[in-house]
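Project channel, design review

CF: Before we commit to the Nocardia abscessus constructs, I'd like one complete example in the thread so the newer folks can see what an input/output pair looks like. Taking Nitroreductase family deazaflavin-dependent oxidoreductase.
RD: sounds good, go ahead.
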Amino acid sequence: MRSAPLVLRVERLLRRVSGGRMGVLDLAGLPSIEVTVAGRKTGLPRTTSLLYVPRGADFIVLGSNWGSTAHPVWSANLRAAQTASVRHKGEQFLVTVREITGVERKPLWDLAVAFWPGYAMEYELSGGRVFRIFELRRQSA
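CF: and here is what came back for Nitroreductase family deazaflavin-dependent oxidoreductase:
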């Protein structure tokens, strides 16, 4: 998607000036979180703003990558991690990471598409790539 680089620059600026409380998706009325996870190769922290699908107290994130044929790098990092840090509405906390596969996957895909129909369009754009789906569950204090 051609607009992705511009959107990402605006996202970073909004996050910086709002102290991490707001991003581009929030302006569009969509829920977003910032996920920080160790890079699987470097171990350095990598932060990405993501649309999430609420599921109770949990966050469901999908590696749609704007409909690209390739998986997003952040999804490979999450796949390699057991935990990550989430910033949500200015609050930061740890989450347990679990990739959703098998029989659990279809109901969460349906939930995600019902929540944000753009996922179906991105799936078509990707040539039918199976998006990685993750559950981020807040850890108890």
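RD: helpful, thanks. The chain has a mean pLDDT of 88.
CF: Strands lie at 32-38, 45-51, 53-55, 58-62, 83-88, 91-99, 133-138.
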